[in-house]
Design brief:
alpha/beta, two-stranded antiparallel ribbon, eight-stranded parallel β-sheet, about 280 residues
């Protein structure tokens, strides 16, 4: 039985608010890491075609013995510049992801980047709408889209994205995007929620909040995300940290803690800028 609460997406689908990310986990290690996460109580797993670990992720799901309907599996279309993204190309790539995962459907399918300079995400997303209509994706959404990209989707397509997965951590709090998402009924999901281990967990303010609650800095940061209403997908291959990261539902940050976190925002990206990122 998982202790993780769920949120309800804009199409009525339930999604665990805390999941397990597998970015940078080699395929040969993914089955073990995901298996450990499932044993620890995670029920949401986030992968992507570009991570090259859908196969290992699917193997862990198959071996878990957990009923498919109790799991929430996300994957993403890598909308590379090397492909002309016609409807048929999108459908082929989706089928390939399902095949690697060994699944009949995914719970959430995302466009990985907007790549606005190529102006093909509307074609891709309209094909996603077909996939959702067929039931092979229970929900569809996007990743790394800025409000300007979302506005165009909302104006020119039929299905409001259920989720926008964006870089979000205490040094990049994304207030504008979170506000836009809330107004549009889009769930905010945070990637790199712990700042990729690049000094965030050593910040004195975070360390002090963690000590105050008898928790680790990572647990304090994850609790901050949850209280903001973010969906969060921490990643680790270390069993003790995998278990630590899900043990965040029996304490609460107070108003002073939340204000201290808010003061840490520096609008500092660790990843690419979605306005300019392409893979050429």
């Amino acid at each position: 039985m998982s202790m993780v609460p769920s949120i309800t997406l804009n199409n009525g689908v339930s999604m665990p608010q805390l999941g397990f990310g597998v970015w940078q986990v080699p395929d040969g290690e993914a089955a073990k890491a995901v298996g450990t996460a499932l044993e620890a109580g995670y029920r949401s797993i986030d992968t992507a075609a570009i991570y090259a670990n859908e196969k290992g992720t699917g193997e862990a799901v198959a071996a878990s013995g957990i009923a498919r309907e109790e799991l929430f599996v996300t994957t993403k279309l890598w909308n590379s510049a090397s492909v002309t993204w016609t409807r048929d190309a999108v459908l082929r790539e989706f089928d390939a992801s399902l095949d690697r995962l060994g699944l009949d459907y995914v719970d959430l399918y995302l466009i990985h980047w907007p790549r606005p300079m190529r102006d093909d995400h509307l074609t891709i997303y309209r094909t996603f709408e077909e996939i959702a209509e067929s039931g092979r994706a229970k929900a569809i959404g996007v990743s790394n889209f800025l409000p300007e990209h979302l506005k165009r989707l909302l104006d020119e397509t039929s299905v409001v994205p259920a989720v926008n997965q964006i870089e979000l951590h205490p040094r990049l709090q994304q207030a504008e995007s979170r506000t836009f998402h809330a107004q549009a009924g889009i769930a905010t999901e945070a990637w790199s929620p712990l700042g990729q281990g690049k000094g965030l967990l050593e910040v004195p303010t975070i360390a002090a909040i963690a000590r105050k609650h008898g928790r680790t800095p990572a647990q304090a940061v994850l609790r901050w995300h949850l209280q903001l209403g973010n969906v969060v997908i921490p990643k680790s291959v270390t069993p003790s940290r995998i278990r630590e990261n899900i043990d965040v539902f029996d304490f609460e940050l107070d108003a002073d803690d939340m204000a201290a976190f808010a003061a840490l925002d520096e609008s500092e990206r660790l990843g690419p800028d979605p306005a300019t990122f392409d893979d050429n």
